[in-house]
Fold this sequence. Notes:
The chain starts with a strand and ends in a 26-residue tail after the last helix. A seven-stranded mixed sheet has the order 1-7-6-5-4-3-2. It has three helices and seven strands, in the order E-E-E-E-H-E-E-H-E-H. Helix 1 (42-58) packs across helix 3. It has helices at 42-58, 105-109, 128-143; strands spanning 5-8, 11-17, 24-31, 34-40, 79-89, 94-101, 121-126.
Amino acid sequence: MNPSFDFTADHFTAGTVGEPGDRTFFLQAAGDGKLATLKLEKQQAGALGEYFAQLLDELDLPDDGNDFESLRTPIEPDWVVGSLEIRWDTDNGQMVVVAEEIEDIEDIEDIEDEGAGDPARAVFRVTPTQVSTFCSTVEHLMAGGRPPCPFCGRPKAPDESCWGCPAMN
Length: 169
């Protein structure tokens, strides 16, 4: 069973390992002496950054974060994110990020083990400043990917060709 996490983060970021077109994306938080590194999809990282930016704007919160925050080592994923949920904690002036592990079909089918099939869960409480920095970091990561095809918008191949572009047929 993978570890679950629940803490107020003193470090909260996204990052990648690998070259554009072959990058692995991570969500990382640290706090209470723990480091949680969760693997996620590029689309999840981008959507989280966009949603956070919207929340900062809607809640009229300051956008005063740093430009970029890097992943801390070791960069070893604890588990893969299946779902993400964001809440605003009005009482503490924090955003609460809840990530849940993607369920492994083998774990679900193995009902003999106590607790099998229960996905790991991470709850990170983060400040608006950390969220602002996260948004800048994700924006930087998204800009560092492969350029889009001008016809269909999908990422070009590493050699800059528009392989498999439906508009080229």
